[in-house]
Every structure is written in structure tokens, then in C-alpha cells.
Amino acid sequence: MEYLDFDRLEALDPVSFQEQVPYPWINPENLLEPAAFESLRANLPDIEMFDCLFDKKRRAGQKPHDRYALEYRDGIPVPEPWRAFIAELKGDRYRRALCRLVGLKSLSISFHWHYTPNGCSVSPHCDSTRKIGSHVFYFNTKQDWDPAWGGETVILDDGGRLHRRSAPSFQAFDRAIPSQAMGNRSLIFARRGNSWHGVREIRCPEGRMRKVFIVILNRDGLGDRIRFALTRRNLARY
User: Fold this and answer.
1) What own/partner pairs with CB < 8 Å and gap ≥ 24 does 40-44 have?
2) Could you read off the pLDDT of 149-192 as tens digits, one per residue?
3) Cis-peptide into 77, omega within 30 deg
4) Of 39, 47, 64, 142, which is the most buried if we count CB atoms within 10 A?
């Protein structure tokens, strides 16, 4: 089984992506083949494998990002569809497509799952400088989730006013753009100095959880770090 619809992924326009405001992001539908999406959703890792990350202190007084988390490493006993999907993500074609979007010749990737229960949130934050960006795959559907419960990643526009080592509320931003997070959707975004984002407090019944799988994109080598910085500077002129 092929998991990614590479034709859809490779059709994403890097110019439109880089010119998006307040920073590069795109929220495509059906980047996973329909059968692959259902297989992955039906075989999500068991929560017993996850670490409990609650009440962890964050920098600058930001509220904790409470959730269950599972970091992927080779050899962990995740279901076979996930092993096959991750093998595909490690392949050259996926990496090339991401490099084309973010404007780099190479990058490194890592993976983790997050399950978020009722009452938890991801406070507004900017990712660490070692990251290029993220590709978030959503795995809630109308069969197990009501959109009124939340779960969307929110793209936040501060108008360039806020220091990234601060702890603003969602109300502090000029604009808040919620992603589409139901069904076979994903969100790709590139880190910039003002790449604020978060997830508002989840309001779901007990036993339900927001479930996402995240590909973390990291810089890979000095040449790409310089090229990435130049891309950011050139975009800032417009």
C-alpha cells in the first residue's frame, strides 16, 4: 500500500506557501490515500505506550502543553501500518517534496504522536530555532469527534509585536486562523521568528482525545542554515 498521495503533495506550490501570511503554512486535504488514512486511523498506537506530559514548566511563563506523547524511534512496537508509513516518510521522495516547499536542499525529520484529552491546550508559542517546521496529520473524524470540541491548530498573527520568549494569550493576537482538522487533513508550516501557533482548550467528553501525528522538520547542515536565513530575509522585504 502507498500511504502518501505524492501527486497532491508535489503539486503544492512553494511560492504560494512561502508568501503565505503571517508565515508559510498550508492546510491540504487528502495527502494520505483514503485507504491508507483509514488503516492508520484504525491502528493508532495504544495510549499505554505514551508518556504523560502534564504540568511541565515552559519558558517565559507559558502555560504547560498537557498531553500524552509518544516519540518514534526505530524498533518500537507500533502497528505495521505505521511502520510502513514511517518508512515511506523516510524515503527520498517525501523529503524532496518538503525541501521544495521550504526552500532547502536537505533536512532531517523525526516523528511523534500526541493525544490530548479534555481540558488541555497548547498555549501560543513559537517553535525552537532548531526546527524548520512541522507537518501535522490529523486523525479525528466525525465518527469520534465533534468539531465543537476544538482540536484545530490555530495560526496566530502578532503583527510583529511580540517577543517569541513571552507568554501571550490567544486574545493578544491580531488574527487567529484555525486550521481544518477533521478527517484526512494535514497542516504544514515553516518556522519563522513570528511563527506563533497553538491549540485552544479541548472541550470533549471523557475518554475522547485529539489525536495527531507530527513530522518535525529540522535543519540539516550549515549551508542549509545560511540558505534558510537568506530566504527569510528576502521574504521580509515584501
Assistant:
1) 40/3, 40/81, 40/82, 40/85, 40/139, 40/213, 41/139, 41/141, 43/79, 43/80, 43/81, 43/82, 44/79, 44/82, 44/113, 44/139, 44/211
2) 999 999 999 999 998 889 999 999 999 999 999 999 999 999 98
3) no
4) 39
Quote the cell numbers at residue 80.
505495521
Mean pLDDT of 131-136: 96
Report the chain's mean pLDDT, rounded to a whole number.
Answer: 91
- Output the pTM of the full model: 0.90
Written as one letter, the residue type at 184 is N
Q: What nine digits make up the cell of 118?
A: 479534555
Q: How far is it, in rounded angstroms, from Cα 134 to Cα 126?
A: 12
Domains in the chain (CATH in brackets) are 6-236 (2.60.120.620)
